[in-house]
Structure formats: C-alpha cells, structure tokens
Automatic annotation (TrEMBL):
Superkingdom to which the source organism belongs: Bacteria
SUPFAM superfamilies attached to this UniProt entry: FMN-binding split barrel
PANTHER family in the cross-refs: HEME OXYGENASE HI_0854-RELATED, PYRIDOXAMINE 5'-PHOSPHATE OXIDASE-RELATED FMN-BINDING
Protein name stated in the entry: Pyridoxamine 5'-phosphate oxidase N-terminal domain-containing protein
Keywords from the UniProt entry: Oxidoreductase
Length: 160
C-alpha cells in the first residue's frame, strides 16, 4: 500500500471525521466474548446518537448471550485504511425497555422497526470509553481521540 502523501490530521479534525462517519455509516463490526465460549465477531447495523452506538439483534443471538455474560465490547467501522475502533460496555434493552427516541431513530435510519417483527429482539447500547482513529502510519502515534469517555477535542459542529 502506498502511504506517501498522507498528512497527519490534527486531533480536532480526526474527532470531526470520526463523529461524521459514526453518524453516516451503516455497518459496524461487533466483537464480544463469553467466558466459556470465547470470542465472537459479527457485522451489525448501527445508529450513533451523538453519545452512544445502538445495535439491534435477535434476543437469542450469540452477541446478546456474550454481552450479558461479559459487557465489554469492541466495535470497528469496516474500513481498514480509515480506521475507527471503539471500546466500551454494552447494555441490553428489550423491545419494551428501549427508549422510544432510540428505537424510532433506528427504525428511521434503516426503514426497519424490530419492535413490529415476529420474534424477540434486543437493543444493545454501547457508550464508548475509548475511541481510536487513524489513516495510515502517519497517524498511528496519538491515534486515541477519546479516553475515559471524553473526546480529546470537542467534536466541532457538523458540516452543512
């Protein structure tokens, strides 16, 4: 891979780019682990509400089973050059427990409302504690843009 010409972005720009991608993208890789059954990774649709990532999956899925046993998760956007990795703890909400604004925003984004489907679904909310974002080798050092749940630079107002 040719990485010549890549210019290191200031932290504020990486935070802005990261929050814009979280708002716009559709898919995220979700990594969970169960103390007895080991690691599990799956792509899921997600919604970024400005503070947390919301996912929705079947109530009997491996993801839900793992999160209930071990809530620490890692999330990754699917681009291996423009990397965004999130780490946090997940909380599960049933279809009746999920806050209406989150469920409605999820349904609006995807044109699919799990609350009206056959079978049971669980909403999984992940508040990131750590976010790392980098493009190529020039940004490897200092790639953390969030630590302990706080952005290192406040996200600027989104571009129009």
């Amino acid at each position: 891979m040719d990485t010549t010409g890549i210019v290191r972005r200031p932290t504020a720009e990486r935070v802005r780019d990261t929050t814009e991608r979280l708002a716009a993208e559709r898919d995220v890789w979700v990594s969970t682990a169960h103390p007895d059954h080991g690691p599990h990774q799956v792509p899921l649709w997600f919604l970024w509400d400005g503070r947390a990532v919301w996912l929705c999956t079947g109530a009997t899925s491996v993801t839900v089973r793992n999160v209930r046993a071990e809530p620490r998760v890692r999330l990754a956007l699917p681009d291996t050059f423009d990397v965004v990795l999130l780490q946090g703890e997940a909380e599960c909400s049933t279809e009746t427990e999920v806050p209406a604004p989150a469920a409605e925003a999820f349904a609006a984004k995807f044109g699919w409302d799990p609350r009206g489907e056959e079978g049971s679904f669980v909403y999984v909310r992940v508040v990131p504690r750590t976010v790392r974002a980098w493009r190529g080798e020039p940004e490897l050092r200092g790639r953390a843009v969030m630590r302990d749940g706080m952005w290192l630079e406040q996200p600027p107002v989104p571009r129009p």
